[in-house]
Amino acid sequence: MSDPKSTELMEKIVSLSKRRGFIYPSSEVYGGINGFWDYGPLGAELKRNVKDLWWRSMVHYRDDVVGLEATIIMHPLIWKASGHLDTFSDPMSTCRQCKKLVRSDQAREMVEDADWFQELQRFYQQATQSSPVAVSAESLEKLAQATRKHAPSLALVRAREAVTARLLASAANNGPDWADENQFIRSVSTENAAAGLTHFPCPHCGGELTEPRPFNLMFKTHYGPVESDDNVCYLRPETAQAIFVQFKNVFETSRQKLPFGIAQVGKAFRNEVTPRNFTFRSREFEQMELEFFIKPDEAVAALAGGVASASDGAWQGTPQPDWGWEVWHKYWVEQRVRFYESIGLAREDFVEYWQKPDELAHYARATVDILFRFPFGVQELEGIAARGDFDLTQHQKFSGKSTEVFDEELRSAWAILDEPTRTALRARHESSLKESLLKKGIAGDEATAQAAAASQAYFEKLAKGHYVPHVIEPSAGVDRLILALLCKAYREVVSTDEKGKTETRVVLQFHPRIAPIKVGVFPLLKNKPELVAKALAVRDLLRPHMTVFYDESGAIGRRYARQDEAGTPFGVTIDFDTLGEKPELADTVTLRHRDDGRQERLPIAELLPRLLPLIR
RNA sequence: GCGGGUGUAGCUCAAUGGUAGAGCGCUAGUCUUCCAAACUAGUUACGAGGGUUCGAUUCCCUUCACCCGCUCCA
Question: pLDDT, tens digit, for every residue of A171-196?
Answer without folding.
Answer: 777 777 777 777 777 777 777 766 66
